[in-house]
Amino acid sequence: MKNINSILTVSLLAAIMIFAFSTVPDFGTRNAFAVDDIEAVNTVIDEFQAAYSAKNLGDVQKLFHYNAVVGIDYDNHTSQDIMIVSDWAKITREIFKSKLEISDKLTNRKIDVYRDSMATVVCDYNYRDNSNHQAGIDVFTLMKIKGRWKIISLIFSGDGVK
């Protein structure tokens, strides 16, 4: 009898949670049909991918708001840091100065636009250079400022691939 009560309790709680989350009203904050904005955000991510792979730090930096934040989480969560974009650019500059050939592919993009001025992009990344291969997830947050989409945060989490 005790097992039946436990099963019924868990089932009831699950049903309540499903009902509660399925009935949350949509206040119109998510603009799922903002096709022009989705395309514009996707273009920013395309430009990031191309500039990073071409080791063009100037073009990479132009995509970020000057106060943007970059979060890093890799090597099975043993290397983590949060920094402003200018500090991240200093590290990236050293990587770009090397003779490494870089490929940074951003695939499986999920883009959401909210209130015509905020967007998130979650995508897989696959980074390779002459001696390193990493794969993981990138999360970009963008804001439309004076009509232009700017990256205000980038968080990437991944691990080396053998």
CATH fold group: Nuclear Transport Factor 2, Chain: A
The major pleated sheet works out as:
6 strands, mixed
In the CATH classification, which architecture applies?
A: Roll
The radius of gyration is: 20 Å
Tags for this model:
globular, alpha+beta, Nuclear Transport Factor 2, Chain: A, six-stranded mixed beta sheet
Secondary structure elements and their pairing?
Layout: H1 2-22, H2 35-53, H3 57-62, E1 64-74, E2 79-84, H4 85-97, E3 103-114, E4 118-128, E5 133-145, E6 148-160
Parallel strand pairs: 1-6
Antiparallel strand pairs: 1-2, 3-4, 4-5, 5-6
Structural notes for this entry:
- The chain has 162 residues and is an alpha+beta fold.
- It has a single domain, classed as Nuclear Transport Factor 2, Chain: A (Roll).
- 36% of the residues lie in helices and 41% in strands.
- The protein is globular.
Summed up:
The chain has helices at about 1-20, 35-55, 55-60, 85-95, and strands spanning about 65-75, 80-85, 105-115, 120-130, 135-145, 150-160. Mean pLDDT is about 80; it is low at about 1-30. It is of the alpha+beta class.
